[in-house]
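Could you join me in thinking about how sequence relates to backbone shape in a protein? We need material for that, and I hope you will provide a protein of your own picking. Once you have written the record down, we can walk along the chain together:

…
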Amino acid sequence: MDPIFLVMRLLHVCFGVFWVGVIVFAATMLMPSVRDTGPDGGKVMLALLRRGYMTILPVAALLTIVSGFWMYMKLMSTIGPVWAGSMSARVYGVGAVAAVVAFGLGFFIVRV
């Protein structure tokens, strides 16, 4: 297998796990805890912003999405139309759409 493909797969898996893990942790543990602390929760959120939380998370998401699209295009160009009609290609496509929608929602809801 192509070494670049393996690197892209490693990037995709590692940054994808990081992206989902941070979001799940923030939604289930961090935000309820910040809400429970009342006005002092703002200090925690400010500290997160100073440490680059709002920069690191979109970068990880973009690296996940870009590496996934690269692998998808590589498979489309290597295997061709036979693979394009397969169930795995459809599942990867649905996953790609879900990732782009999640990134878009996260970007516009959090940033705006």
User: Anything to note?
Assistant: The radius of gyration is 18 Å.
